[in-house]
Amino acid sequence: MTQTEHPDSASVIELTRHWLERAVIGLNLCPFAKSVHVKGQIHYAVSPATDTVALRQDLLRELAALHEADPEVRDTTLLIAPACLQDFLDFNDFLDEADAALEELGLHGVLQIASLHPQFQFAGTEPDDITNYTNRSPYPTLHLLREASIDRAVEAFPDAETIYERNMQTLQRLGHAGWAAVNAGTAGPPAADGQGTGKKRDTSA
């Protein structure tokens, strides 16, 4: 595991790692997460950006760094933005900028960007729908993945297309109280009240 340090980044990374261990891996929301976590192949980068211009620059840097890194050392990156895009609608709009950054670097089809947010909301759901919590992280986060790693993971898990449905069932059984118990101590600072519907994107954390 590697990490990019910024002021207060240690606590942001620790909270994110705790959420990953307790929720994502603990509830098996992503069958592929445990391996890279155990092997220390997740790079945690905390962006100090307070606006999308600065965040886009950090994203470009982290995309390039992931592409250049040895996959055995750095397989995936979590770019965390604790001071930016607290409103989910703004965060959702930024995903188009994120995809444009991939194109700018010529990495479309090589890397992929998944989205995680404290107020994540799938299209067609209510804000408090428990299924939204499958993509709710302590802070606004862009998950940078290697397409080759995704392909290998899917080959090893032939029923990958059922993960989304299984996760919804897991959260529905757990309920809000159960989710709160699992994630005790992992909540980030309160986000703005902005709500909205998110694009259904391939996600894994």
Short description:
By secondary structure, this protein is an alpha/beta fold. It contains 6 helices and 5 strands; from the N terminus they run E-H-H-E-H-E-H-E-E-H-H.
Compute the average pLDDT.
86
Distance between the termini: 14 Å
Q: Approximately what portion of the residues adopt beta-strand conformation?
A: 5-15%
Number of domains: 1
Helix content: 40-55%
Structural Rg? 16 Å
Strand order of the largest sheet: 1-2-3-5-4
**Total number of helices:** 6
Question: What coarse outline follows from CA principal-axis ratios?
Answer: globular
Element-level helix/strand string: EHHEHEHEEHH
Class by helix and strand content? Answer: alpha/beta
Structure description:
This protein is of the alpha/beta class. The protein has one domain. Helices cover 42% and strands 12% of the residues. It contains 6 helices and 5 strands, in the order E-H-H-E-H-E-H-E-E-H-H. The chain has a 5-stranded mixed sheet, with helices on both faces. Strand 2, helix 3 and strand 3 form a beta-alpha-beta unit. Helix 3 crosses helix 4. The longest helix is centred in the last third of the chain and has 20 residues. The protein is globular. The C terminus is likely disordered.
Keywords for this entry:
single chain, 205 residues, five-stranded mixed beta sheet, globular, disordered C terminus
Topology:
Blueprint: E1 2-4, H1 9-25, H2 33-38, E2 42-46, H3 52-68, E3 76-80, H4 88-104, E4 111-116, E5 141-146, H5 147-156, H6 163-182
Parallel strand pairs: 1-2, 2-3
Antiparallel strand pairs: 3-5, 4-5
